[in-house]
Each structure stands twice: as structure tokens, then as C-alpha cells.
């Protein structure tokens, strides 16, 4: 069954309240129907005024989420927030000029793509490498329709591929973790093992070693992007074994990592634990009674990439068959300052410039791709 689109800003604001209320509870598999965003939480009607003052364009885009869902507070939500900004910029209404279709599992990919196709959207984006085969299948069946794939490369002429140098941002996260840990043990929790998440793991472990190769890195995979309970379970084991900083690259699984860290910090505030967020600034996820435990976050500007490719198609020509890559130099990935110490942030900035200048080479994969 096709998933429904967003209904209204009121529904989003209500969902944001529910998400905030649930953050102190143990993680579960439950998902809200709508994503929460800071702009919507303010209750401001500035976005509506902008839409009213802007002449709407005759163009529309849609996105199909991966299994993490649109309210994963990470990858999919970053894409959706970028799409919302694009719609506001062009005077478009949700559900008409732009929309999302939520996938609970991979069986929803093709039906959702076909539903978006039937609903008449000009470009349909698959958010995440898990959708590549489905996007290619539907693209082959509809050669005149424009598609986009995020985090993988399609060789179809009617698909634009948007890729990111995740290993570069993760390298900075590794530097931040190594500069911060007091136990000499840090953790990495990946979602589903594969080339994309391997980039995160490879960059992170290399960044830690760049600072101090004696620091232990515990690497584990949840084999899910949506099960926050597994994320909490893995994080509990890592923290119990001595890790004091955990970086997750696991979508909604990471919500469980934050939950476990919050629970431990609230029960024993004398023990400092940190979580490094992914894909968007996850500082809000680290809030607890005693402060904030989000050390920093790697940023992946999925929404910006969607906005840029949609504008290119609207203003000139759809970049079908092209691969558009975003790294530190292009500003497509980065690391926020967050709660890093002054010394740690200074080191991160030096390393960032070294990567951009080519003085520091960041490995991309831990294994050879077949």
C-alpha cells in the first residue's frame, strides 16, 4: 500500500511535540507519521507568508524514503527538510509541489515510486542506496520520467546520481572523538553493512588513528536503519566496556544510542559520555537534564543536493545520467563545532584544511569492492 504524504504544518508541529516528549523513554521501533523540524516547532507562520509572497512555479518533486522513515532525525529527515526549503523558496504547497512517500521496508520502494509517478511529480528521488535497484527498475519502465538516487550511482540516462564523500566528514569525527575520549576507547555503530556505511567506518577509524593509533575503536553493525532498540542495546554494551564516545552512522538506529547515553548520564552524571551525530546537526537529540551529550555531528547536505539538482532541471536541463559528488571542498559534507573543546575544534579545523588541500589523504573503504 502506498504511504500518504504530509498533511499540514499543524500535524508536523503536533508530531514534533510527541517526539520531544518521547526522547526520555527507552527506544522502540515506533515511528511518528510526521517529521519534526526546528522551523515548525517555533510556531511561526513566516514560511506561509513566504509562500504567499512567492509566485508558485509549475514544477514538482517527490522523495521516497528508505527504511529509516522520514522522521529518523537523520538521513531521510535531512532530505525532507531540504525539500521543504525548496518548496517554500518556490511558493509551493506540501502535497502538491513536493511530497514524500514513506517506506516501512524494501517492499514499499517500487509501489511508492509508482505512486509518485502516478501523482505526476517531475522528479522523484530515491533517498538512499537501498533504493538503487528499485529506481533503476521504474526508470527503465518510464524512460521519459526523471529520477534521482542519493548515495549510489545509476547508469540510466533519466536518473541523476547524488553522492557524498562521507569518509571525509567521518575522518573529522574520528579526530574529534580521539581528541575528546578520556578512556582511550571509542565506538562506531553502523546501520546495514555495505560500501556506503563502510565509508563512515573507514573515515572514522582513520581519523582516530590520525590523532592516536593506540585508541581502541569498537566497531559494530545493527544491520538496520530503523531499529532504535538494537542501537540502544549495542550502545549499552560499548559504554559498559569502557567507550566514552560513540559515533553512529545508522539513521533511526542512532536514536537508541542517544537514549542509552541519556539514561546513563541522568543516572550517573559524574560519568561523561558523548555521542557523535550523523547527516544533520543532532545536538537536540543530546539534550538531557544535566546538559547536552552530543559532542558534534557530521553533516551531509542531502537536502541541498536535491535543491540544486531540482533547480538545475527547472531552470535549464535535467542532469540525467550525471553523477554529482559532494565532499569537504564542495561543502557537501562537514563537521559542526557542537560541544567540542576549543583545542579539539582547532585540531579539527587544521585537519579539515589539510584534507581539502590534499595534504591529508583519507581512505575511503576498509575492503575491496567487487
From TrEMBL:
* Species this protein is from: Alkalibacterium subtropicum
Q: What is this protein called?
A: Nucleoside-binding protein
Specify the taxonomic lineage.
Bacteria, Bacillati, Bacillota, Bacilli, Lactobacillales
- One Pfam family hit: Bmp
Membership in a protein family:
Belongs to the BMP lipoprotein family.
Q: Does the keyword Lipoprotein apply?
A: yes
Which keywords accompany this UniProt record? Answer: Cell membrane, Lipoprotein, Membrane, Signal
Signal sequence residues: 1-20
Which cellular compartments is it found in?
Cell membrane
Q: Where is the composition biased (Acidic residues)?
A: 35-52
For membrane topology, the record states: Lipid-anchor
Amino acid at each position: 500500500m502506498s504511504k500518504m504524504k504530509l498533511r499540514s504544518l499543524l500535524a508536523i508541529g503536533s508530531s514534533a511535540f510527541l517526539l520531544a516528549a518521547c526522547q526520555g523513554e527507552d527506544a522502540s521501533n515506533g515511528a511518528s507519521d510526521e517529521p519534526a523540524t526546528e522551523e515548525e516547532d517555533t510556531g511561526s507562520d513566516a514560511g506561509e507568508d513566504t509562500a504567499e509572497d512567492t509566485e508558485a512555479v509549475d514544477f514538482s518533486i517527490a522523495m521516497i524514503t528508505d527504511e529509516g522513515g522520514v522522521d529518523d532525525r537523520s538521513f531521510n529527515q535531512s532530505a525532507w527538510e531540504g525539500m521543504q526549503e525548496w518548496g517554500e523558496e518556490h511558493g509551493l504547497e506540501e502535497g502538491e509541489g513536493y511530497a514524500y512517500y514513506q517506506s516501512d521496508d524494501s517492499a514499499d520502494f517500487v509501489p511508492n515510486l509508482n505512486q509518485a509517478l502516478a501523482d505526476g511529480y517531475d522528479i522523484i528521488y530515491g533517498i538512499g542506496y537501498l533504493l538503487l535497484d528499485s529506481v533503476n527498475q521504474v526508470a527503465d519502465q518510464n524512460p521519459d520520467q526523471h529520477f534521482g538516487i542519493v548515495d549510489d550511482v545509476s547508469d540510466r540516462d533519466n536518473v541523476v546520481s547524488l553522492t557524498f564523500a562521507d569518509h571525509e566528514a567521518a575522518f573529522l569525527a574520528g579526530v574529534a572523538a580521539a581528541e575528546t575520549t578520556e578512556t582511550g576507547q571509542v565506538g562506531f555503530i553502523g546501520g546495514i553493512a555495505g560500501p556506503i556505511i563502510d565509508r563512515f567506518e573507514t573515515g572514522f577509524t582513520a581519523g582516530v588513528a590520525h590523532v592516536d593509533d593506540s585508541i581502541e575503536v569498537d566497531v559494530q553493525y545493527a544491520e538496520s536503519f530503523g531499529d532504535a532498540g538494537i542501537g540502544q542495546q549495542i550502545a549499552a554494551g560499548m559504554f559498559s566496556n569502557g567507550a566514552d564516545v560513540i559515533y553512529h552512522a545508522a539513521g533511526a538506529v542512532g536514536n537508541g544510542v542517544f537514549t542509552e547515553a541519556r539514561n546513563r548520564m541522568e543516572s550517573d552524571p559524574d560519568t561523561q559520555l558523548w555521542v557523535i551525530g550523523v547527516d544533520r546537526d543532532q545536538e537536540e537529540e543530546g539534550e538531557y537534564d544535566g546538559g547536552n551529550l552530543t559532542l558534534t555531528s557530521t553533516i551531509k547536505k542531502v537536502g541541498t543536493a536535491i535543491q540544486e539538482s531540482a533547480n538545475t532541471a527547472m531552470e535549464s536541463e535535467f542532469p540525467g545520467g550525471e553523477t554529482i559528488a559532494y565532499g569537504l571542498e564542495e561543502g557537501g559534507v562537514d563537521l559542526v563545532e557542537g560541544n567540542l573543546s576549543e583545542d579539539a575544534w582547532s585540531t579539527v579545523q587544521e585537519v579539515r584544511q589539510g584534507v581539502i588541500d590534499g595534504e591529508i589523504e583519507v581512505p575511503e573503504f576498509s575492503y575491496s569492492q567487487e
